Amino acid sequence: MAPAVWLLGLLAAACATAAQAQIPYAGPLFDAHLHYNDEACVHATPEPACPHPLEDVLARMQRNGVRAIVANSRPNDGTRALAQARAQAQAAGVTVVPFVRLYRDRADYNNWFRDPSIAELVQAELARGTPSGPYRGLGEFHLYDSANANGPVARQLMALAEDTGLAILAHVDDVAIDLLMAHTASKGQSDLSPGRPKADQPPRGAATRAAAERGGGSFRLIWAHTGIGGTPVQRVDELLARYPQLMGELSYRPGLTCDGGQLCPEWRALLLKYPDRFLIGSDTWVNQGWLHYDELMQGYRLWLGGLPADVARRIAWNNGARLFGLTPRTDDPAAPLPRHRQHVAAHPARRAGRTL
Fold it and tell me: Which domain holds residue 53?
């Protein structure tokens, strides 16, 4: 009889462990790849065409426990609108981290890397800033041919970003990662941007003063989707090892999750190996992204819940908060998910090779 009781106890413990692994992560989320494009709301007209007004998008963030966002929009009006809505964002518990996007319209997607007017646009936006403070990064930008990473404007903006302590959000392949990093003074190796003096050194010049005043961040190349074309995990591992300034953002990454919405084994191993190098994002590139925002965030919460708690917290919140100088949260400001939302749908079908 005793062996049977022991076996039942062992099975019960195993079932409890498995059940615990399926409990979704309930802490705050940092959405490190969010667009508020003109399809969602046109802000430059007296009566905007606006299927997703500010109240709508902020409510979606709030109910999903999203406490900070990297906002980058086509055109930049959408990002400025989010940054200007300080009272509304504060009421929703959302911090807006604004990036300069390189696109005035879709025509810029295929030409920005060699168009001098894009460099002028970036400089003008950086000088202008936003109602909530300075821009913190550049992008998201796209390179559909990795060779275009050697374009004159691509070279110029990579050097500018490192010199002034801005982050880059890049939708590129693995070959372009190598090429883009080659255009920085540090070659992607240093954790200290040249434009960000050490604590015992005074700022040098206007660019370095701006970087020092910005605070809480330094140059990083954030790899949008961490290889939307399905870059092999071994190659991702190789690039993360080669470039300390590289981080991976995980929206719509092919092959990320397997059965039950949990991480595939090779991706789980990679996230455990580099827990400080990954971010999550929504990539609301079209309005369907807003309509499915809840499912996207719930999908993240599901597989985050299958990771050790400290690793889940880093990927969900701490990595982005640390990068952009937000106060680390010792509590869990995100409200626990209602019981009826504890079952989490898998991400919608992966979208490879599309224009965001």
Answer: 26-329
Crossing angle between the packed helical segments 233-242 and 174-181, to the nearest 10 degrees: 10
Residue 220: inside a domain: yes
Average pLDDT value for residue range 217-241: 95
CATH code assigned at 86: 3.20.20.140
Q: Report DSSP letters for 89-143, one per residue.
A: HHHHT-EEEEEE-S-SSGGGGGTGGG-HHHHHHHHHHHHH-BTTB---EEEEEE-
How far is residue 220's CA from residue 158's CA, in Å, rounded to a whole number? 10
By the 8 A CB rule, do 126 and 165 touch? no
pLDDT on residue 48:
79
Task: Give pTM, 2 decimals.
Answer: 0.83
Both tokens of 66, joined, read: 């999203």
Q: Of the candidates 69, 62, 26, which has an alpha carbon nearest to the alpha carbon of residue 331?
A: 26
CA 349 to chain centre: 19
Catalogue the E-assigned strands of the chain: 29-34, 66-71, 95-100, 137-142, 167-171, 221-223, 246-249, 278-279
Q: Is residue 164 part of a domain?
A: yes
Kind of pairing between the strands at 137-142 and 66-71? unpaired
Overall average pLDDT of the 227-254 stretch? 97
Rounded to the nearest integer, the mean pLDDT of the chain is: 84
For 8-17, 100-109, 174-183, 269-278, which range has the lowest pLDDT when averaged over its residues? 8-17
Query: In angstroms, rounded to a whole number, what is the distance separating the alpha carbons of residues 102 and 326?
Result: 25
Q: Which residues of 264-274 are buried (b: 16+ CB within 10 A; e: fewer)?
A: eeebbebbeeb
